[in-house]
Amino acid sequence: MVAHSTIKNVPPLNHLAIIMDGNGRWAKQQGLPRVAGHHQGVQTVTRIVDECISHGIAYLSLFAFSSENWGRPQPEVDALMGLLLQFLASQRQRMLDGGIRLRVIGDRRRLSDSVRAALATTEEETRAGSCLTLVLALSYGGRDEIVRAAQKIAEQAALGLVDFKTLDNKQFSTFLDTTDIPEPDLLIRTSGEMRISNFLLWQSAYAELYFTDVLWPDFDAAELQRAIDDYQCRKRRFGLTDDQLQPVSVTDDKEITN
Ligand code: IPE
Ligand code: IPE
Ligand code: MG
Q1: Which of 21, 144, 177, 185 is catalytic?
Q2: Tens digits of per-residue pLDDT, 164-187?
Q3: What is the mean pLDDT of residues 20-37?
Q4: Looking at the domain assignment, is residue 30 inside a domain?
Q5: Is the pLDDT of residue 153 over 90?
Q6: Burial per residue of 222-237, b for 16 or more beta-carbon CB atoms within 10 angstroms, e otherwise
Q7: Does the residue 186 lie in any domain?
Q8: Does 94 reside within a domain?
Q9: What's the domain range around 22?
Q10: Of 50, 69, 218, 230, which residue is the catalytic one?
Q11: Residue 59: which of 136, 140, 134, 127 has the closest Cα?
């Protein structure tokens, strides 16, 4: 017999996306160079990955480097790429042990050979991971992704493999980098900025948005809990009316045997 049944208006948080912003300002506050903020930001990533697993989140998408971030000073770009390589090397075993699968989205052609190779190796090695899919957005821009998808569709249409007259949202989305990844339920941006900055433009059409002033290096388990609690109180209508919504019954209720 089931007791303590919980009725929620929102589906369980399956996919969390985060715009990790504020590393530079955090470093400035501490009187440190911007790169120190990025270094600290990587520590936050490892903590938050663990927290997401404890919350039963299946997909975590992190905006790590945008297509526009290529315009930053070259030493900062180099430092970010170096930190990415260090992250992959230091987390390899942890990902394998913890069932974490790495997926990379973005335009890899702009990444260096060594970064591309390290990403491909890690993706291959972790492909059986079934606990959490960590989606790293690198050299990623939502507009760029949509244009690349349109190019792929045009190529396939020219070969007669796609009929653009019957093309719909569902088929279009299979040409995006995120093919097979469900849409984000909740999108968090840290550091007080209230914009999307070209992240998951297509996929976030119906994501719940959450903004916090906390800078990414200071983001922790308590802040994540706050965002999740906020999400649980949202009402996701997807264009329908309140009356049309079916309450979602959460299935993690304990069974009582007597
Ligand atoms: C986010 O922090 C990390 C990246 C964009 C790579 P920022 O570097 O944008 O930090 P702020 O916004 O300057 O504080
Ligand atoms: C967005 O942050 C990109 C990442 C977090 C990787 P930015 O710092 O680049 O965004 P803007 O320039 O403030 O919009
Ligand atoms: Mg920023």
Answers
A1: 21
A2: 999 999 999 999 999 999 999 999
A3: 98
A4: yes
A5: yes
A6: ebbeebbeebeeeeee
A7: yes
A8: no
A9: 6-59+126-131+141-250
A10: 69
A11: 134
**How many structural domains comprise the chain?**
1
Distance 208 CA to ligand 1 centre (A): 22
Structure tokens of 237? Answer: 């209508």
With respect to residue 105, please indicate whether it lies within any of the assigned structural domains. Answer: no
Q: What's at 189, amino acid-wise? A: R
Clarify whether 69 is annotated catalytic: yes
Ligand 1 near 219 CB (within 6 A): no
CA nearest ligand 2 atom 11, residue: 197
3-state DSSP call for residue 65? strand
78: tokens are: 């180099």
> Is a pLDDT exceeding 50 seen at residue 111?
yes
C-alpha 256, offset from chain centre? 37
What percentage of the chain has pLDDT greater than the value 90?
Answer: 90
Cα–Cα distances in Å, from 111 out to 78, 223, 239?
11, 32, 39
| End-to-end CA separation in angstroms for the chain | 8
* CB of 201 closer than 8 Å to CB of 146: yes
How far apart, in whole angstroms, are the C-alpha atoms of residue 14 and residue 40?
26
Which residue owns the Cα nearest ligand 2 atom 10? 197
Q: Is the CB of 63 under 6 A from ligand 2?
A: yes
**CA-to-CA distance for 221 and 129, rounded, in angstroms?**
23
Residue bearing the CA closest to ligand 1, atom 1: 21
Which residue's C-alpha comes closest to atom 9 of ligand 2? 69
Residue 4 φ/ψ region, left for φ over 0, alpha for ψ in the -120 to 50 degree band, beta for the rest: left
CATH of the domain at 173: 3.40.1180.10
For ligand 2, the distance from its centroid to the CA atom of residue 193, given in whole angstroms, is: 9
